[in-house]
Amino acid sequence: MVIAETAFTPIFSSMKAVVINQNGDSSVLQLQEVPQPVPDHHDVLIRVYATSINPLDWKLREGISKILPGKFPKILGAECAGEVAAVGLMVTDFQPGDRVVAEMGADGGGYAEYALVNEKNVVKLPDDIDFVPAAAIPVAGLTALQALRDLGHLRPGDPVLINGAAGGVGTFAVQIAGILGGRVTAVCSESHAELVRRLGANRVIDYQKTDFTLQPDRYRIIFDTVSKRSFTDCKKALTDDGVYIAAVPSASQIFQDVVTTFTTQKAETVAMKFSKEDMQWLLTLVAAGRLEPVIEHVYLLREIAKAHQHSESGHATGKLVVAINHTDEEK
Ligand SMILES: NC(=O)c1ccc[n+]([C@@H]2O[C@H](COP(=O)([O-])OP(=O)(O)OC[C@H]3O[C@@H](n4cnc5c(N)ncnc54)[C@H](OP(=O)(O)O)[C@@H]3O)[C@@H](O)[C@H]2O)c1
């Protein structure tokens, strides 16, 4: 979200937000007082109680990705959960007080006390899901579901390997692959073996000791949530009709996606697209206790730089969430 000047008198006052005014390391993340955004016709203004960190956030912060329009100040944060504070004139599905969860992608806006989201990207939150776990679901949960179901066409009994099984996307992928009936092999470091087993992995491979691509086992789906391997590396570990799915796009990966249109083994790259139906599917499973948003740590708004540093280490466990308590402690 870019904080825009508005011709209207804001109906709300100011809010605390973590803002960047330039690209750079985590020190560019500054807790500041900024104007509250004002909803346009199709917008929902959310009083944010939790947001979460995604690697996308620090890639945008660093400026290594050119997705970020060169406009500052900018508030990052691709997803949030909270209560509806106000709605635009054309919004009929939401009203103030509704508990909701939302996804904003690269537009951001989640690292703030209030976030503006188009109604298309907002869903109601069941009463039995708290804001902190809810904020961990949209980006990682939808990516895992859409990769395995839409690109992998996962069928019951399929052998599935999840590389990066202990991360934000990986912890959802291990569970969703199991829920869809896959026989799941999880690849992570030894320190995370117990976690991924608890999430339903049938087998665990420690990537520091064993290279799964050199083992005799074959998988119908290899979902590389951290894109540490390539389609070429994984070809021998795929069944003849197997698919390698990358979460991180690259020129070589996209080349393989195109080339394998003509072969039985496929390479694919997932590009998560927000879907209310898919979000409902995830929320229903979470509410039923069948899907667990794994959260390593809950930070405060003023600790976001620390959260970014941990995410950038590449060894976060599940998701890193930021709780927003709307008190002066945030200062
Ligand atoms: N295309 C899309 O639509 C989309 C959507 C969401 C995310 N993404 C991208 O997907 C990537 C993963 O996101 P994320 O949120 O899951 O990241 P993350 O939570 O930061 O991933 C951290 C995990 O990576 C594991 N890992 C690190 N090195 C590894 C290796 N060599 N082999 C296996 N696992 C390794 C770590 O496990 P250990 O600590 O056990 O080593 C850690 O648990 C990011 O680059 C993100 O930008 C893309």
From TrEMBL:
Protein name: NAD(P)-dependent alcohol dehydrogenase
UniProt-listed InterPro entries: ADH-like_N, Chloroplast_QOR, ER, GroES-like_sf, NAD(P)-bd_dom_sf
CDD domains given in the database record: MDR1 (cd08267)
Top-level taxonomic group: Bacteria
Native species: Nibrella saemangeumensis
All copies of domain Enoyl reductase (ER), residue ranges: 24-322
Transmembrane segments: none
